[in-house]
Design brief:
215 residues; alpha+beta; 15% helix; globular
């Protein structure tokens, strides 16, 4: 009887200890390097490129955002250029020449620098191939996701197009501006609008900002 009771006590103790034993394994989330889900990282060079994204408030333009970490304890570096690569080599980057200092053991967030803007044929949800160049001759080529300028990225795309001055109400004829040839012009349309101007207006309308409410 005593033996059976001892076995039951041992078995019960093991059952109670199982959750504790299971929580003491390796590979816990706190042991892993944190990586922001949307951004992409490159840790191969002395300057690590972290959480790189192109933030787009509307189609066809955006702002390159990343953090640069200099792992060297003695050498300073500079980011001298960002350019499209591969199938994305037709992207236009402004400015094309950069001089962003990254001191030894330093960390630079491009959000705090003058914006690096990109224009081309792209939209949020894609990934563009970019090459970053540094003053020591090193280059980093990576696929950079294009994200909506919403939530965490809200306000990080200063490349967002402002309404064109040509579309302002002051450019349209006033109700009293009646042509002398007898034709009637409404206050909301210009009699001198050409087909090319119409196409330009349509193209501009197609680049309206993304609606963060609908994603």
């Amino acid at each position: 009887m005593q033996t059976r009771r001892s076995l039951r006590l041992v078995a019960g103790a093991l059952v109670l200890a199982l959750p504790l034993l299971g929580s003491c394994g390796f590979g816990k989330a706190t042991d892993r390097v944190y990586t922001q889900a949307a951004g992409t990282n490159d840790r191969t060079g002395e300057v690590q490129v972290l959480s790189a994204v192109i933030v787009a408030a509307q189609p066809d333009s955006g702002t390159f955002v990343a953090s640069l970490s200099n792992t060297s304890s003695k050498d300073d570096f500079q980011l001298t250029g960002v350019a499209g690569a591969g199938e994305w080599s037709d992207l236009k980057v402004d400015p094309s020449d950069l001089s962003i200092d990254i001191p030894a053991r330093g960390f630079v967030n491009l959000v705090q620098e003058d914006p690096v803007t990109l224009t081309g044929d792209f939209e949020a949800g894609q990934a563009a191939e970019l090459t970053l160049t540094f003053d020591n001759g090193a280059t980093v080529t990576m696929d950079v996701p294009i994200v909506f300028a919403c939530n965490t990225y809200a306000g990080l795309d200063p490349s967002q197009q402002e309404p064109s001055e040509s579309a302002s109400p002051t450019d349209a004829p006033s109700p009293g501006d009646v042509p002398t040839d007898g034709t009637t012009v409404s206050p909301t349309e210009s009699p001198s609008e050409s087909p090319s101007e119409s196409e330009s207006s349509a193209a501009q309308a197609a680049q309206e900002p993304y609606n963060c409410a609908t994603g």
